[in-house]
What does this fold into?
Amino acid sequence: MSPLQQSMLDSVFEFEGGFSNDPNDHGGATNWGITHAEISRFLGHDASIDEVKAFPKADAETIYLRNYLAAPRIDQLPEALQPVMFDWGVNAGPGRPIKTLQGLLGLSQDGAIGPATIHASAAACSTPAAATALVVRLCDARVAFYNRLVANDATQGKFLKGWLRRANAFRPKTVEA
It folds into this structure.
């Protein structure tokens, strides 16, 4: 595992924490941010709540690296984009940030990272300042997404402060020339 991947996983675990079973969370019971449904798929059977509670962090790492980094090809994007894209994908599903990135790059929004998305994102990150600007635009889009989500479903309002804190944690502190 690369240092960047370890850093991204550490960040996700910091935000996601351990076991949760909030009735307003559309993901249901989770551990390490991995939903009951995803744990069940991983285990090959309908996991009990006790199995969700006891789900090993190492298995959560495997799921994150496989399903949220490698499978959607976020690891093929410029390194500057990977943390925000990975974290947003963990929190809202990988298709949403991929479509958003594609829209920001002026591409068709199919939600799949292919050669056009890889090439356009590399071109958009040709300088540190350009990469920073694109990350800022992704953070802005993520904040807008969460605000829309709460506007459309008031039951999700209790999560907004945390979601916004999480989205803004990826906002660059300085713009390099």
